[in-house]
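Worked example 2:
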Amino acid sequence: MSSKIGVTAVASAYEAGADEVESWMDLAVGGLKKKGAEVIDAKPVLTDQSSLRKVFDQLENKDLQLLVIINGTWAADSLQFELIRKIAKPVILWALPYPKTYSLASVLHIGSILKEEGIYFKYVYGSPDDEQALSQIIKTAEVAGLANLWKRMRVGRVGRRFTWRTMGPTDTTYDELDLELSSGPSAIHIDIDELFSITFKINDEKAKDLINQMKQNGKLGIVEVKEKALIEAAKVYFAIKELIKKYSLDALTVECYPKYSGLDNLASAWLAEEGVAAICEGDLSHTALWLILQKLTKGPVCLLEPVQIVNEENAIILRHEGSGPPTLSESISQIRLKPVSEEKGVIIFSAVKPGTVTLATLWGKPRRYRMWISKAQTIKLSEEDIDKYGGGCVAKIKFNYNAQELIGSMINQGVDHHMLLAFGDVTEELTEFCKMVKIKPINFEEKLAKNKE
């Protein structure tokens, strides 16, 4: 993700250090550029309404991820507030460690106003060339880019809509309308017959070539389905890609369960390896979140559900009808392709490999979304364990506190059953993302850890 950052500085001509602020700004801009950011350095230094107009003209409509305001000295809050409100991007307030300037006091003051008005901001503290401050800005800009993506994301929902005309006067269901009104992802309905129509036109040889390619790349596993079912699953892979291209989608979900179980599981797993969000069961919100997690971790993401508590290990078993990306398994020998029916439907039996993971689930209506975010450890599973825990894609998640209390807290808070798993710890970044897009982050860990003590 590229980082496009707008940088300006604010000062007062009456304060000590005002004549040095522009050079401090140049130093900060140079540091951000060295770290690979695309920077628009908007001058002159903000001191009055005239300079505000010039700075705004340089930053307006530039598709910024982030606005950085260096508080060079104590300065008028009205200038910063007006710029922040009009640019309407996540903002970082930079406090400089120079006592004579009152820079830190200035950041505290404008921060108190932004907090009161419910406007997102972060602050950094350090000299203009401080490496930690510069790195924090780059990291925040990347997350801000995902917040921008969230607000303009297009998610396709492939499925049947038999009753849409009886529910209201428009061509959209109310959950899709709610998404639009929440300044979140847009939902684009696609009838499942269009998916079938595209699949029908794809020839068998093209599908067989893909299957051979996946086999050579170690992403096929042990095939326990008939060739016809495997070919049909490969065709769905191509059909999904065509729909994403046709409708300019960022992500897509198929309402496969229960009538079309196994329709898109294999395609979903293969596409995940390419960074394409195309998950099962028509889950719009988690499909959108899948893409955010993929971009944060730069790896495939897996959809799972809690199915069992292992009290003696403080662990939870997560599983889902198999669509686990192959690289999430420890070995290709653990991956088995199982049939749903004789000719159609393929599910993947696999175990998620051990490692540090981030878990996240999104629930509630779009205008009052909440997100549970947790860091956890996955435990090694055998092929026998996959069958023991019900088949499909299986993960065993270990926590540092009572797993049954965790599930109880989830149920009491109304947490959804669908969960996303991605390797790596991006809990901090995901929490920051929530704040930017006005989703309430939920964390049970601190309370549960205290209960353990």
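The CA atoms of residues 61 and 211 lie 45 Å apart. Residues 153-452 form a domain with the L-fucose Isomerase; Chain A, domain 3 fold (CATH 3.20.14).
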